[in-house]
Amino acid sequence: MNYLKHISRLSLKLLSLPLLLIACSGGTAPESSFEYAVQGLYSAELSDNGSLAFVGSINHGGSLWRASDNARRFNWNHRQGQFTEITNAAFSPDLNYAITATPQTMVLWNIKNGASMAYWTAPSEILDIRLLPDAQLALLGLADHTAALFDVRNGGVKQVFYHQARVTSVDFNSRQHLVLSGSDDYSAKLWHLQTGDVLYEWPHKAEVQLVKLSPNGKLAFTMSKYDKAALWDTTTGESKGEIPLATSALSRGLSFTAVAFSNNGDYLLTGTSHRTVQLWDTNTLTEVKQWIMPKRDAVAPTSASVLALAFNGGGSANAGDRVITSDGFIHQLK
Question: Can you give the pLDDT at residue 67?
């Protein structure tokens, strides 16, 4: 997740929980919190099973972490000897590869040895990115009003999906051959991955800022600021309902900044720009649990956005689900 849309070591320390976990009115505090970046993050990404984390630090470039023991694996930057302001990143489904992006460039990485494999200039400003199986193609959300499949091994755009305004969020499901895109043109579109045909178009009353497909490809999530957070049936195109958000909150601009489905699609984790994480039952569209991520400074009037979420092992509402916030912390839920 890109925080801007809404090779030296860092000093690492496990903060004292009594100091860190200040009052969490209305929600549960996480079980533990660990600092990945002192000055905060431009971006962060968690693998679907929560085992790997990538962070794009404000002052120290990009780094790959093993989330289970918070061990830094590699420092990743696009130019040797310089810290890169990485605004997007993604893992391949098999967790053998990762891709990092600035608005103008992309680098494909080997997760096993940390080596860079390819460097590319983007066809337009990159607003979102996903990496397809075997890391042959990357799905890009672009400022030129398109989503595009880019060949990250050989270069070049292989498929284009058109909108009428910037494409700010993208996702895919290779099992069902689906691409999902959200745009500033007030629409989300579901596409056939191979043919490029539009399967369904879902209108909204404002810019669509966040989209996600469930692992089984049966559900699509779309979030439009000032409008709604909705679930859709990808087979019929029919609405499954809306996440129950207060009208007053929507009118003030409440929106989700990160989202993750459980493996079976029965649960949804969402995060906001105000440190809140919620677990939802997608069948009943009811809230199951809520957490409030701690503030870095108990006194300062600062907040933090949720940049990335993952179910522990990809499962359904297990202890150990993980959250990364823009103030540079990874949190483990309980």
Answer: 96
